[in-house]
Amino acid sequence: MELLKRRIIEDGRVLSDQVLSVNTFLNHGVDPVLIAAMGREFAERFRDAGVTRVLTIESSGIAIAFATAAELGVPLVYARRRKALMNEGEYYSERVPSFTKGIVTDIVISKEVLKANDRILFIDDFIANGDAARGALRIVERSGATMVGAGIAIEKAFQSGGSFLREQGIPVLSLARIASLEGGQVRFAEE
Amino acid sequence: MELLKRRIIEDGRVLSDQVLSVNTFLNHGVDPVLIAAMGREFAERFRDAGVTRVLTIESSGIAIAFATAAELGVPLVYARRRKALMNEGEYYSERVPSFTKGIVTDIVISKEVLKANDRILFIDDFIANGDAARGALRIVERSGATMVGAGIAIEKAFQSGGSFLREQGIPVLSLARIASLEGGQVRFAEE
């Protein structure tokens, strides 16, 4: 997606060979025009997949997932990161390490908002080694629902998360695929 | 807002005299049609306030704040809850207790996304005793920006947060004001 790639070049900041900050427009400061356009891209790609629910994990996927869900006309659920919030009934829980934050959290989804007949489109801002996506996929599978696609804003193609999802047979649309952040430079993967 | 009040009656769950769960449509499961309508209400009310940025705090305000920002055509910023995420430059930080979670967190906003000439519309899903709003207001004031209004989905009118903001001279629009949750019943405040 040219709009996103251009914005990454203009306003992204390479913090290390592994970490790209998009704090000013994607996951702290948020540009609604860009995010709405991303939502339309994901909706267009997965329009015929029979999606019944969009799933993301708090917090940084929420705006993009909301835009996608609104465009598809289906509900959204965002997995929460602490059990403390979910002490009111039954939920699915998976332990997930976070690559950028260096911590392990539990992601939880209430059984009220994830059903066995759901067809889930997973949306997130980044995929790196895929731990979050893996956790989300495990929960979806345990619920009996099906993950019919994944829409990722920025895929770090030099890590294995995107490949993992594709190997599971899940169609993945990444709007920007980054081949390398070495030397402080963003290099995108060939289309 | 009748649409929200009706939904609270139909799908909300009173967990105690203090706590109302809206997990199935507002802050875990999210109904994009409802949230978009809420964004339009906030945008309409504050259209002439010269808002330059919408501010919320992760995570449960993000979808509503995004809908509002998209409607107003201004950027959004959501305060993050941990310093670990913000080790890349300067930020404002305030310590905020959470009523429902019983924990204290630091909310942080990068100086990159909050400027002295900003006119801020604060958006959140709930206001109870107002600790989060108070923390957000302190950060806005320290940055030199101005909080020109607050849009709250659900105000617990039996707690003091909404009154606190109004006493600061900040116009507050709450879409549903709850007078009491006693006896497992939602009673709305008179308009």
Automatic annotation (TrEMBL), chains A, B:
GO biological process, one term: purine ribonucleoside salvage
Gene3D superfamilies documented for this protein: 3.40.50.2020
Signal peptide positions on this chain: none
Residues that bind 5-phospho-alpha-D-ribose 1-diphosphate: 128-132
Pathway(s) the chain acts in: Purine metabolism; XMP biosynthesis via salvage pathway; XMP from xanthine: step 1/1
Residue ranges annotated for the Phosphoribosyltransferase domain, each copy included: 42-156
Main location: cytoplasm
GO cellular component annotations of the record: cytoplasm
Substrates-to-products reaction catalysed: XMP + diphosphate = xanthine + 5-phospho-alpha-D-ribose 1-diphosphate
InterPro entries registered for this protein in UniProt: PRTase-like (IPR029057), PRTase_dom (IPR000836), Pur/Pyrimidine_PRTase (IPR050118), Xanthine_PRibTrfase (IPR010079)
Recorded superkingdom: Bacteria
Chain sites annotated for binding xanthine: 20, 27, 156
Subcellular location: Cytoplasm
Keywords of the record: Cytoplasm, Glycosyltransferase, Purine salvage, Transferase
Assigned EC number: 2.4.2.22
Annotated GO MF terms: xanthine phosphoribosyltransferase activity
UniProt enzyme class: transferase
Functional note: Converts the preformed base xanthine, a product of nucleic acid breakdown, to xanthosine 5'-monophosphate (XMP), so it can be reused for RNA or DNA synthesis.
Subunit structure, as described in the record: Homodimer.
Family (UniProt): Belongs to the purine/pyrimidine phosphoribosyltransferase family. Xpt subfamily.
Protein name (database record): Xanthine phosphoribosyltransferase
Gene name in the database record: xpt
